[in-house]
Design goal:
By secondary structure, this protein is α/β, with parallel strands linked by helices. Helices cover 18% and strands 34% of the residues. It folds into two domains: 108 residues, no CATH class; 99 residues, no CATH class.
C-alpha cells in the first residue's frame, strides 16, 4: 500500500486531480493485513496533527493491546519515541506535543476519536523525519502536494486613507479586521463572512433612502448586525442549513425600514439593536 501511495504522488497533479475520489481512497486506505499485527495505527486527520488509534482488545476487530497498564505503558513509550523525531536537514524537533483524547476531549463519544493527536512543528515544511529508533525517512517529492489545511497566523494587506505605502502593519486579530462600523449616509451595504465572523455596526449610520438594503452572505461563518432602535427589519434572506434571526426590539413608531437580503449557507446572520 505504501508503494501505491508513493507511485500515485509521483503522477502529475493535473492527472490525479481528475480522479480525486480514487486519490483519497489510495491515500487513506488502511493496510488491513498489517493493521492486525500493530499495537496502534494512523487514522486520517489533517496536516496540523496526526491521529493515532490504539489497537485495543475489545474495541478493535483484531485488538492487540489490553486496556489498562499494558496500553498506558505502550502510550508512554510511544510519546517518548515521537519526541525524538527530528527533521534530517535542519535537526529541528518535529513534534510540539501529544494530546490524549480522553484528557483533551472528554465525553461519551471519545472512543470514536483517535486516542492520540500528534501536533506537528509546522514552522516550515517538513521534508522528512529521523530518529535513533526508526532511522531516516525522506519525502522525495513534495512539489505537487498541497494540504488545504488551515494554519495559525496569516498575511493581510490594507489600503485606505492615512495608510502609507510600504509600512509593516501590526499583528491583528480576525475580528479586528472584519469589524465594520458605518457612519453617515448609507443606502446599501454588502457584507460577507466565509469560515469566519464579521460585525456590521449601523448604529451611527444615517439612511439616505428608505428602505435601505443590507446584502449578506454567510458560509460556515457568522454575521452580527447592529441597527439603531426605531428601525424595522424585513427579512428576505434565505437560510440554507443555517439561520437568519431578527432579535431587534419592535419600535412603537418605526422611523426607517431595513431589508435584509442574501443567504446564510451553513452559517448564521443575526440582526439586533
Amino acid at each position: 500500500m505504501d508503494r501505491a501511495r508513493k507511485s500515485w504522488k509521483k503522477l502529475p497533479l493535473r492527472f490525479t486531480e481528475q480522479f480525486s475520489t480514487l486519490a483519497r481512497s489510495v491515500n487513506r486506505m488502511p493496510d488491513s493485513r498489517d493493521r492486525r499485527e500493530r499495537a496502534c495505527f494512523a487514522v486520517p486527520t489533517n496536516a496540523n496533527s496526526g491521529g493515532i488509534r490504539l489497537n485495543l482488545v475489545g474495541r478493535e476487530p483484531n485488538g492487540k493491546l489490553h486496556p489498562g497498564k499494558e496500553a498506558d505503558d505502550f502510550v508512554a513509550r510511544l510519546i517518548d519515541d515521537l519526541g525524538e523525531l527530528t527533521e534530517p536537514s535542519s535537526g529541528r524537533v518535529l513534534v510540539n506535543e501529544v494530546l490524549r483524547s480522553r484528557e483533551a476531549f472528554p465525553g461519551e463519544n471519545v472512543d470514536l476519536l483517535p486516542d492520540l493527536f500528534v501536533r506537528w512543528n509546522r514552522e516550515t515544511l517538513i521534508t522528512g523525519v529521523s530518529s535513533p529508533k526508526i532511522g531516516t525517512i525522506i519525502e522525495e517529492d513534495i512539489s505537487t502536494r498541497r494540504t488545504g489545511d488551515h494554519r495559525s497566523g496569516g498575511l493581510y494587506f490594507v489600503h485606505g486613507p492615512g495608510l502609507a505605502a510600504g509600512v509593516r502593519l501590526p499583528t491583528a486579530r480576525d475580528e479586528d479586521i472584519a469589524d465594520r462600523r458605518v457612519r453617515g449616509p448609507v443606502s446599501h451595504v454588502e457584507v460577507s463572512a466565509v469560515m469566519g465572523g464579521c460585525d456590521l455596526d449601523l448604529r451611527e449610520a444615517v439612511p439616505a433612502i428608505d428602505p435601505i438594503a443590507i446584502q449578506v452572505f454567510a458560509m460556515w461563518g457568522g454575521i452580527d448586525i447592529r441597527i439603531p432602535p426605531g428601525w424595522v427589519v424585513e427579512i428576505e434572506a434565505w437560510p440554507i442549513l443555517g439561520g437568519v434571526v431578527d432579535n431587534t426590539q419592535a419600535p412603537a413608531l418605526p422611523a426607517h425600514r431595513v431589508i435584509l437580503r442574501g443567504m446564510a449557507f451553513m452559517g448564521g446572520v443575526e440582526i439586533k439593536n
